[in-house]
Amino acid sequence: MNNKDQALIFELSQPGRVGYSLPELDVPEADISSLLPDGYVREEEPELPEVSELDIIRHYTALSKRNHGVDSGFYPLGSCTMKYNPKINEDVARFDGFAHIHPLQQEETVQGAMELMYDLQEHLKEITGMDEVTLQPAAGAHGEWTGLMMIRAFHEANGDVNRTKVIVPDSAHGTNPASATVAGFETVTVKSGEDGLVDLEDLRRVADETTAALMLTNPNTLGLFEENILEIAEIIHGVGGKVYYDGANLNAVMSKARPGDMGFDVVHLNLHKTFTGPHGGGGPGSGPVGVKKDLIPYLPKPVLVKEKGVYHFEYDRPQSIGRVKPFYGNFGINVRAYTYIRSMGPDGLKAVTEYAVLNANYMMRRLAPYFDLPFDRHCKHEFVLSGKRQKKLGVRTLDIAKRLLDFGFHPPTIYFPLNVEECIMIEPTETESKETLDAFIDVMIQIAKEAETNPEIVQEAPHTTLIGRLDETAAARKPVLRYERDLQNA
Amino acid sequence: MKHRYLPMTETDKKEMLAAVGVQSIDELFADIPEKVRFQGLYDIKEAKAEPALKKELSAMAAKNMNAKQYASFLGAGVYDHYTPSIVDHVISRSEFYTAYTPYQPEISQGELQAIFEFQTMICELTGMDVANSSMYDGGTALAEAAMLSAGQTKRKKVLVSETVHPESRDVLCMYAKGQNIEVVVVPHKEGVTDISQLNELVDDDTAAVIVQYPNFFGAVESLAEVEKAAHGKKAMFVVSSNPLALGVLTPPGRFGADIVVGDAQPFGIPAQFGGPHCGYFAVTKKLMRKVPGRLVGQTHDDEGQRGFVLTLQAREQHIRRDKATSNICSNQALNALAASVAMTALGKKGVREIAVQNLQKTSFARETLKQNGLDIVFDGPVFNEFVVRLSKPVKEVNNKLLEKGIIGGYDLGLSYSGLDHCMLVAVTELRTKEEIELFAKELGDSHE
Ligand SMILES: Cc1ncc(COP(=O)(O)O)c(C=O)c1O
């Protein structure tokens, strides 16, 4: 093992070391065997590490240095909105009165938390143009499923039991079809046209009396606004279906167009994107869902209501789909999102969208001469390039992504959406300065030139990271998913 | 407008507009049809400067009674435990919390290795072969376990014990509805799953038998008997387990569990009004390729150096779309990190010690309440929790307790018929002898 390796915490373990400080047991001690049934007292100790507090801190500090976050550098990962995560949010979420309250405390003792939730819902209603909002879903995909279950309940309540299909564009995020399956629907794909937008002819062809809903991201995952949105909504409503808005891309339209005004019936938001919930290395998120009037009866319960200035969780909702998550959602993330919205206000949220879109268009125009631009029109908060030209030179999009690592940038999203060959999907966000955008653009141009003059340097990248390209095939062929001492030494 | 999160200057803006070839930002939104274009500004609260906003939100937080000011005897799935100070210091390192899913392994080794370690610790505690990188929470993890079971066995019915957390059962029913799976509740008898009823209900259509260990009432279920019932009919044996209890309880893996799920909240994750917590999902090797969510595996780079990657991704939504094993994408990675730090700090010895303290204190509290004349509802062995019957509504008693600086237990009448006036009392290592005695005295005084 060379020095680039960071030992696993288990490999640092030494019998006899401790990293904890528990209170002395201050009650009379009974014999454990008298407290538990025969055979239920654990015999083998779990192989958890035995390390000191400093060992632990050094270990995790070393790990953190092997990780790139937004605070480390530019992170233009398309569809993920890697904007700055404000520090006041972190402070507020850690207030004792928010962090250390129990979800089953009596309502009178948590009115402040309920007030925050209620006011956040009110703000999200205005931002989305919907009539009611639930904060219960834990993330975007969970919100999708929640929304689809409500649509299903709506159709069932109307005796409309043959609506078994959900239409999803080919550019949709993978969670859309996956959520449709979990909600018991069959997925039907609608094609994108040459212009990157939903092909209306194809939509008319697939929409019929078996359509439960259409799921749409707008702007779509190519960063393009679906201009025909009203017609799209009409087609789906015309056959009796509902129109679902995947709100992951709200950063592109805040104060410019609201899902509620575009004809959508249900929307989920990713508070861990537009509303600065930190991504946390993969979570936790929060995926509130907003609905139009006719779906309100189906909202998950409990529903938060305000009566005479007092907040209350209402459980008596006979048509509710039920509960999608224990308790009331990812409150800690909701606190952060609320703090952000209150920091920005109406002018701020408008400016957020304007700069997110300006930044993306600026980058797109400056990079267009060097890469293929599949859709040559104004984009919204993100845009896609194609690495087709570079591929002909033997340099794949994956190579370009890896080469970016040498310059300290997190690569864009690659090979998504699926309908663009050698896709490179760039989302700068509004919190980056022009200097940062320019630095990234310069490096992308350099890489495009290297592909022509010195392709090996791109193909063999990265050169400066602690670790080189990893063998993913080996990882999948013979999976090692946990530490086992004997295996490491073998 | 000038804002500290928005760095562009007027000069920047001018240069950028020129590079794009437009006169104004508005032109970039010209593709939004006039009819749906939002005019003006949102009708929401005006922006507040940092100091004023902090003050306002601090006042809002102060309206909530919290476990730092009150001695809490409330559990029911969310517990007030010792959290080493280092936990928050580690998860506050922004290389961790401002990163996304580690899709670029070369610059995400820190997160990947931390998850690999988390997976290992969950395997160790549960006695299972494989654990994933986290789920939203214990409730959705349990529901996903039921779905996995149905898919694996090609059967459409699951049995769930009445002693499983009521809110988890609600969530299970929601997921089951989506998949047209029938959920049958196995009643409890004296606070534990009624084994003879279970034996009657389990049949050749049963995909899974689901129990909780320790159960919602704090009682230790007889996993050996449940296993026999489940496997006797070739159904999956699913256990939802508080991982901290497994410091002293024989792990479900030892009893032949096929899937073990639960919530790692007791390890270093604050209650925060119910979320985010951290679901975990562990299985036998046989089910490895059916697991929902992300898995981290060990591999090596082109020079043979050890490294970690997301693996077996062919199960996941971004590859398999409508054929994926689950729709989960974002999970609870940062909380898995928090739990890892807490489990590491406790280590092999500490996890036993903390579990034993919980066991001892629960037993002491139960005895003390008994001595104060209270009616203990179920007799069997318990961990963390037990049920006591009061002579008044629980809410009334809890209101009185608040005056003494105590947050009382959960009102079981809210979710169980036949348990009116019954309180589910939680006792962790953080409750001192004095607090327990005061609590017992107050409950005793309320008793008529
Ligand atoms: C367009 C889109 N929809 C849905 C999702 C799923 O959101 P989550 O990861 O919160 O489940 C994402 C996130 O990656 C997304 O980009």
TrEMBL record, chain A:
Description of how the protein assembles with itself and partners: The glycine cleavage system is composed of four proteins: P, T, L and H. In this organism, the P 'protein' is a heterodimer of two subunits.
Q: What is this protein called?
A: Probable glycine dehydrogenase (decarboxylating) subunit 2
Q: Cross-referenced NCBIfam families, in alphabetical order?
A: PRK04366.1
The family this protein is said to belong to: Belongs to the GcvP family. C-terminal subunit subfamily.
Q: Which Pfam families match?
A: GcvP2_C, GDC-P
Q: Identify residues that carry N6-(pyridoxal phosphate)lysine.
A: 273
- Cofactor(s) this protein cannot do without: pyridoxal 5'-phosphate
Cross-referenced InterPro entries, in alphabetical order? GcvPB, GDC-P_C, GDC-P_N, GDC_P, PyrdxlP-dep_Trfase, PyrdxlP-dep_Trfase_major, PyrdxlP-dep_Trfase_small
TrEMBL record, chain B:
List, alphabetically, the Pfam families matched: GDC-P (PF02347)
Work out whether the entry's keyword set contains Oxidoreductase: yes
What EC number(s) would the UniProt record show? 1.4.4.2
InterPro entries referenced in this protein's UniProt entry, alphabetically: GcvPA, GDC-P_N, GDC_P, PyrdxlP-dep_Trfase, PyrdxlP-dep_Trfase_major, PyrdxlP-dep_Trfase_small
Domain of life where this protein originates: Bacteria
Q: Give the transmembrane region(s).
A: none
**What family name appears in the similarity comment?**
Belongs to the GcvP family. N-terminal subunit subfamily.
Instruction: Describe the subunit structure.
Output: The glycine cleavage system is composed of four proteins: P, T, L and H. In this organism, the P 'protein' is a heterodimer of two subunits.
Q: What does this protein do?
A: The glycine cleavage system catalyzes the degradation of glycine. The P protein binds the alpha-amino group of glycine through its pyridoxal phosphate cofactor; CO(2) is released and the remaining methylamine moiety is then transferred to the lipoamide cofactor of the H protein.
Put simply, this protein is called: Probable glycine dehydrogenase (decarboxylating) subunit 1
What organism does the UniProt record list as the source?
Bacillus badius
Its taxonomic placement starts with: Bacteria, Bacillati, Bacillota, Bacilli, Bacillales
Gene giving rise to this polypeptide: gcvPA
